[in-house]
Amino acid sequence: MANQAVAKTRPPEKAVHKWNIFRAICTAKNALGVPERALAVLDALLSFHPETVLTGEGLVVFPSNHQLGLRAHGMPMATLRRHLAALVDAGLIVRRDSPNGKRYARKGRGGEIEFAFGFDLAPLVVRSEEFEALAAEVAAEARALRLVRERITICRRDIAKMIATGIEEGVPTQAGGQGPADWAEIHQLYRGIMIRIPRIATRQALEPIADELSLLADEILNLLETHIKTQKMSGNESQNERHIQNSNPDSPVELEPRFPESRGVGLEIVPEPKRVPDGTFPLGMVLDACPDLIDYSKGGIANWRDFLATVAVVRPMLGISPSAWEEAIGVMDEVQASIVVAAILQRGEAISSAGGYLRELTRKAQAAEFSIGPMLMALIGSRKREKKRA
Fold it and tell me: What distance separates the 2 farthest-apart alpha carbons in the chain?
């Protein structure tokens, strides 16, 4: 009733571009309580008005339900009537009923329309400023939501890469602590924060999570910077010691050449990468199903070697024991087992024990009861559904 009271107000002396105000209504449809298909009906009603600019007079359109349904993309009559009622309830249009309930126009002797019975578009002029203000608020909220999502994405990427670096370099998280073990705990803390992100999240729900991720990223960065400073100080002290020893004039071996005790000392043997077996799923498909793994890589995953190296970093974070991994690659090859680990990482919030889950899938694979293909397709389908809901 309140919307109708405002809608029946005489239109002000101003002109409104009908398609601009229509776009504003589309943006603010949730705030106005207008269904999406009702907007298709409003679009059709506006198309029956011959002018692009709406002014204070001649705003009644009178198409039949058949004509209106055709312009609304063949909408059924029952659906059309329901959405017309929704537009009236929202105060976007006003019914101007004739004595017999039909929609028509009565013209005078000069051919001008004297009376018209149908749907009055005057509310679009009367409430145009309200619609534009609502649209601006919705756009501002959408922008704020996009910014907080970008903030979470950046923190997520940085944290994953810093954790991977900490594990690879064996950086201790506290004095006398064992690096990899402590980094696994930090990774669990990170995953615990990520689990709390809802599938359809609002800005109010995401902002506290973004703050927690920012604090965690700052703490991890401090750990890495402290480690770098410690290494530099140790390097300087070692260099000073060598300088003092080499400056000793009494050293009898100062001018004698030094030979290593063994020819293999100081040489790092790089193992030959295993050949990817035939029949493996395309790498692009695997990364499409398990994109979270990319966050833990060094500069992206361009080939299967990068993929296996990244999985090797992620495995201890998930708490997968060496025995569970050896059992898995004994039944499956290394690539397939690594794909399973990437899938476990992707579904981290739904799996309480990654090691136990890997053992269970290994047992099923040994009994020919498990296949990687359906698992990847399920993950891809789940991501597509999340994108549609977002």
Answer: 126
Instruction: For residue 322, give Cα distances in angstroms to 169, 317, 326.
Output: 19, 12, 6
Residues 213-232: b if buried by 16+ CB within 10 A, e if exposed: bbebbeebeebeeebeeeee
- The reported pTM is 0.60
Tens digits of residue pLDDT in 113-147: 656 778 889 899 989 999 999 999 999 999 999 99
Q: How confident is the model at residue 105 (pLDDT cuts 50, 70, 90)?
A: low
Instruction: Quote the tokens at residue 343.
Output: 């899938």
Spell out the residues 6+ positions from residue 105 whose beta carbon is closer than 8 angstroms to its own. Answer: 60, 62, 113, 115, 116, 117, 118
How far apart, in Å, are the Cα atoms of 182 and each of 167, 220, 298, 317? 9, 12, 21, 10
Dump the DSSP string for 178-191. -HHHHHHHHHHHHH
Cα distances (Å, whole numbers) of residue 91 to 34, 40, 128, 178, 249:
10, 16, 12, 67, 98
Q: Which residue has the tokens 């690594």?
A: 338
DSSP 368: T
> And the tokens for 350?
């739904």
> Cα separation of 386 and 199, whole Å?
7
What's the distance, CA 59 to chain centroid?
44
Contacts of 359 (CB under 8 A, 6+ apart): 324, 327, 328
Distance separating alpha carbons of residues 81 and 92, to the nearest angstrom: 15
CB 279 within 8 A of CB 336: no
CA distance 192 to 291: 18
Average pLDDT of the chain to the nearest whole number: 79
CB-based contact 377:345 (threshold 8 Å): no
Counting every residue, how long is the chain? 390
